[in-house]
């Protein structure tokens, strides 16, 4: 019995061998902080397979890194997420664009939704851990960088670490 693919699944599965090779090389270049070279390879892959959400997502990230055209990059990544909403990597790339843009709240939402889609995938977990969670200042009526808050925070951290060592 044959299954019928949705248009999104067709777009996802329509990558040719040549476009997949270009994509994999581009992914390797992005990981090596060479987004300009990766963008060129992704443009070639998108000529072969223009509706592939994975290619679009990585292309949007490269565009944000290289040219700092955040509005276009965000639109491209959002299109990729709409095409394949269950792909955590598309959401991670959209979150990375948000972080580059300076919108950490939107980035956190995207990373969290990617993590909820696949809790075992390392990319959303890594991005969430990179963002970290800050404790509130000890003295909320003083600025976070005030010397008293800084020192009291250091003491609080030492006490919590000592307490966890004693308990375990």
Per the CATH scheme, the topology name of the largest domain is Serine Threonine Protein Phosphatase 5, Tetratricopeptide repeat
What is the number of E strands?
Answer: 0
Main sheet attributes: strand count, strand direction, barrel closure? none
Q: Beta-sheet strand percentage?
A: under 5%
Q: How much helical structure, as a percent, in the residues?
A: over 70%
Q: What's the gyration radius in Å?
A: 21 Å
Mind explaining what this structure looks like?
By secondary structure, this protein is mainly α. The protein has 2 domains: 7-133, Serine Threonine Protein Phosphatase 5, Tetratricopeptide repeat (Alpha Horseshoe), CATH 1.25.40.10; 135-168. Helix content is 74%, strand content 0%. It contains 9 helices and no strands. The longest helix has 21 residues, at 147-167. The N and C termini lie far apart (57 Å). Residues 1-13 have low confidence and may be disordered.
Give keywords:
168 residues; mainly alpha; Serine Threonine Protein Phosphatase 5, Tetratricopeptide repeat; 2 domains
List the helices and strands and how they pair.
Blueprint: H1 7-13, H2 17-31, H3 35-48, H4 53-67, H5 70-83, H6 88-101, H7 104-117, H8 122-131, H9 147-167
Helix pairs in contact: 2-3, 3-4, 4-5, 4-6, 5-6, 6-7, 7-8
Quick summary:
The protein contains nine helices and no strands. With 168 residues, the protein is mainly alpha-helical.
